Amino acid sequence: MEPILFIGRSLPALGRKLANALNVEPGECRIEEFADGEIRVEVKAEVETRTVLLLQSTASPAGRNILELLLLADACRRRGARHIIAIIPYFGYARQDRRVTREEPIGARLVTDLLATRCDRILTFDLHTAAIEGFASVPLLHLSAVPLLAEAFRENRHRDCVLVAPDAGAVKLVMWYGKLLQLPVAYLEKVRKNDQEVAVQAVTGEVKDHLPVLVDDMISSGGTMAAAIDALLNAGARPEISIIVSHCLLVGQATTRLAQFPIRRIITTDSIPVVDAHQLPITRYSLAQILADTLLKLFRTEVS
Q1: Quick check: do 4-144+288-303 and 146-285 share a fold?
Q2: Cα(82)–Cα(3) distance, rounded to whole angstroms?
Q3: In this structure, are strands 198-204 and 185-192 parallel, antiparallel, or unpaired?
Q4: Which residues are catalytic?
Q5: Whether 271 contacts 243, CB under 8 Å
Q6: C-alpha 127: how far from its chain's center?
Q7: Which whole-number Å values give the CA distances from 90 to 100, 279, 299, in the listed order?
Q8: C-alpha to C-alpha distances, 77 to 54, 118, 163, 296, nearest whole angstrom
Q9: CATH class of the domain comprising 146-285
Q10: Which of 120, 110, 58, 109 shows the shortest CA–CA distance to 84?
Q11: What's the CA gap between 97 and 81, in Å, rounded?
Q12: Please, is 191 exposed, middle or buried when counting C-beta atoms within 10 Å of its C-beta (0-12, 13-18, 19+)?
């Protein structure tokens, strides 16, 4: 029996594209909220003995989206689903992968533990920390949008471009893009002041008179990108900034913060619900085909 796809409220557009790529009709379900904010889920479609695909991004509001996904999974399991696959293009709480002080939880471990109580497999993209794969007690397939986004940028590739990691955590990522695009790389050393403000201490690599292309897994509050652009311009980079990120959250004052800079383009995916950021030149590339190809390969493997 063919799998059935349910689409959470966070990603209706990506859900429709994925359904088309898989050539399936989305399963009927009802998701609403009571007056006090409690989420109510009803799975209308027949799921008994079937493989269920649940698509939900856990971007803002992360807590609500995670709970909605868990409720969907629980409803399907109680209706007799054989196998439940959680498709989470953006995995919330991934930055809480360790304790800096003894006063914190490890949020990434908690979320993976919760998902494992109702789901048999997790698919996600470009985790902030790849080690999170080791937290999960069910198979977690860590996919990447890097080849998709590198290809999307290729038409803008120029011999004067330099790929830049805004901090040490993005160095491996920028090296991957550098290999795909055959471009030189540089990286910045930053110090975080708080969750929204950072300062750049040093620029390593040649950026003067180059066209900088900032590469990271995500933009959240925009603080890291703003500090990076400031540092690059002060180092003599040309004022034509490109940004490539898998997840474009743009929370808080991120849009206003970045709109003041000479950003030519932001290339990203549809892993995040579209936010009102008309001041920024954002182009989104869909993850639907990558997901469809991956899922079809999984289904063929399971059947064989």
Answers
A1: yes
A2: 10
A3: antiparallel
A4: 190
A5: no
A6: 7
A7: 23, 23, 23
A8: 12, 7, 46, 22
A9: alpha beta
A10: 120
A11: 31
A12: exposed
DSSP tag of 75? H
Q: Domain-by-domain residue ranges, the chain?
A: 4-144+288-303, 146-285
Sorted by sequence, the CB contacts under 8 Å of residue 205 that are 6+ apart come out as: 162, 164, 184, 185, 186, 187
- Sign (positive/negative) of CA torsion 55, 289, 247, 101? positive
Nearest-5° Cα angle at 84, 132 to 25: 120
Structure token pair of residue 286: 């869909």
**What's the CA gap between 96 and 110, in Å, rounded?**
10
**Three-state SS for 72?**
helix
Which of 3.30.9.10, 2.60.120.10, 3.40.1280.10, 3.40.50.2020 is the CATH number of 4-144+288-303? 3.40.50.2020
Q: How many CA atoms lie within 13 A of 16 on its CB side?
A: 3
Indicate the DSSP class of residue 118.
Answer: T
Question: pLDDT of the chain along its 304 residues, tens only?
Answer: 789 999 999 999 999 999 999 999 999 999 999 999 999 999 999 999 999 999 999 999 999 999 999 999 999 999 999 999 999 999 999 998 888 888 999 999 999 999 999 999 999 999 988 888 888 899 999 999 999 999 999 999 999 999 999 998 899 999 999 999 999 999 998 766 655 566 676 888 999 999 999 999 999 999 999 999 999 999 999 999 999 999 999 999 999 999 999 999 999 999 998 877 789 999 999 999 999 999 999 988 765 4
Residues paired with 242 in a beta bridge: 213, 265
- Burial level of 30, CB count in 10 A (0-12/13-18/19+)? exposed
Whether the CB-CB separation of 33 and 40 falls below 8 Å is answered with yes
Tell me if the bond preceding 262 is cis, omega within 30° of 0. Answer: no
